[in-house]
Design a protein that fits this description.
This protein is α/β, with parallel strands linked by helices. It folds into two domains: about 5-210, Pyruvate-ferredoxin Oxidoreductase, domain 3 (3-Layer(aba) Sandwich); about 245-265 and about 275-365, Alpha-Beta Plaits. The protein has helices spanning about 15-35, 65-70, 125-130, 160-170, 175-185, 190-205, 290, 320, 345-350, 350-365, 375-389, and strands at about 5-10, 35-45, 55-60, 80-85, 110-120, 135-145, 210, 245-250, 255-260, 275-280, 300, 305-310, 330-335. Helix 4 (about 160-170) packs across helix 6, helix 5 (about 175-185) packs antiparallel against helix 6 (about 190-205) and helix 9 crosses helix 10 (about 350-365).
Length: about 400
């Protein structure tokens, strides 16, 4: 029996679906040039896949057909040589509707395996965000903003080529750089030469940082007690969620407004790559964000301000787009936050401190956008990324 290789790509549903598919497909094609056998496939985080929901794609490669067949007898790999994370905010953890509970980003990474992350953050920050493991692994960073596109468009900013160049570097047994470059040229007749250059550059500049056993986020990811089949009852009952209640002002004690009761189990903390931050002093109380939010995230405060509740927000950006007041709602990269606390509570407790936090968090926010804020944004981003790459 030969060796079996497994690579997973953890991505944000739809925004990065084509990117993930391009990476896993190219891995299999490049390995095939080196005489190996492989298959790539997706595991939806949600079905149908939705914007922002974490999802996975895999490339499984064997030295020979029998090895591959044996490897593919499992539903999906239990461990992988390389985990590729194409949105660094997923280092906080991955929760999807297709599996139960929060999965650490490095959950499947083998002892001594490599986690490759697309990020503008430092290794220290990414390690701090990622859950600790009992075994050591390596971290490699591709210096770039997370690449997002849509269902009908693909932002060809060379993120795929760069990641593939990094894989060739950290796992040279899987495929050679030369085979990768040939694959990129053959698969992309118009842009292949340039993609091959990007792959080479990333191959040359990729280095890894060792992450020791026990290093990283000490939080214990929450888990579910699954009933055994012998314990399951006939039929199901889905308990309703109570309507909700008024909110108490933390300073004056005034009670008013309305906070809908939310699902006690499913939280959307990790479906977000960005979150809205609200400048309450600019708010004209027009209610548009409250009406337009597809997930009914806004809590209405006693003085009729609108506070986006982070347990419910999936970070779609609709509220920012609809708010009529300039810079009243700003979407900010999730890596800027370490908790999910209420912004309004912080504003009520100390308005000047909240204002200076707001200015800092907005001004220092790492670059991030879904890429559809205005016409022509994709083209601008592609130019920028390709010139960096
Ligand atoms: S980003 Fe805004 S509109 Fe979208 S889910 Fe969050 S609060 Fe609602
Ligand atoms: S849309 Fe903007 S101005 Fe209107 S209520 Fe929401 S935050 Fe306030």
């Amino acid at each position: 029996m030969g060796r079996l290789y497994a690579v997973e790509v953890v991505y944000r549903g739809i925004f990065q679906k084509t990117l993930a598919k391009n990476i896993t497909r190219a891995i299999v094609l490049a390995a095939h040039r080196d005489g190996k056998h492989g298959i790539s496939f997706g595991r939806y985080g949600d079905s149908p896949e939705r914007n922002g929901i974490p999802a996975k794609a895999f490339a499984i490669v064997g030295d020979d057909e029998v090895t591959l067949e044996e490897g593919m007898a499992k539903y999906e790999p239990k461990e992988v040589d390389v985990t590729i994370c194409v949105d660094d905010t997923l280092c906080k953890g991955v929760e999807s509707w297709a599996w139960y509970g929060l999965q650490p980003i490095n959950r499947l990474t083998k002892p001594g395996g490599t986690l490759i992350v697309t990020s503008l953050e430092t290794p220290e920050r990414l390690i701090e965000m990622s859950h600790r493991k009992d075994t050591p692994y390596k971290l490699a960073i591709i210096k770039a903003a997370a690449s997002f596109s849509g269902l009908w468009v693909y932002k060809d900013d060379h993120t795929d080529a760069r990641i593939l160049g990094a894989v060739a570097r950290v796992l040279p047994e899987l495929f050679s750089l030369g085979s990768l470059q040939e694959t990129l040229k053959e698969e992309n007749p118009k842009t292949g030469e340039l993609l091959a250059v990007s792959a080479q550059k990333q191959f040359d500049r990729t280095s890894t940082v060792g992450v020791a056993a026990g290093e990283g986020n000490t939080e214990v990811p929450y888990t579910f007690e699954m009933p055994k089949w012998t314990e399951m009852r006939e039929g199901i009952a889905i308990p309703g969620i109570p309507a909700g209640a008024a909110i108490k002002d933390p300073v004056t004690g005034e009670v008013g407004g309305f906070q809908p009761e939310r699902n006690p189990t499913f939280k959307k903390y990790l479906t977000r790559t960005m979150r809205p931050v609200v400048d309450f002093e600019k708010c004209i109380k027009c209610e548009l964000c409250w009406i337009a939010c597809p997930d009914s995230c806004f809590d209405v405060t006693p003085e009729k301000l609108y506070d986006a509740n982070m347990a419910a927000c999936c970070g779609c950006g609709v509220c920012e787009a609809i708010c009529p007041v300039e810079k009243c709602i700003t979407m900010v990269n999730e890596t800027a936050f370490t908790d999910n606390a209420s912004q309004w509570q912080a504003f009520r407790k100390d308005a000047p401190a909240y204002k200076s936090w707001l200015v800092t968090v907005i001004e220092n926010r790492p670059d991030r956008s879904h890429g559809f804020r205005y016409r022509g944004q994709y083209e601008e981003q592609i130019k920028q990324e390709v010139s960096h790459g």
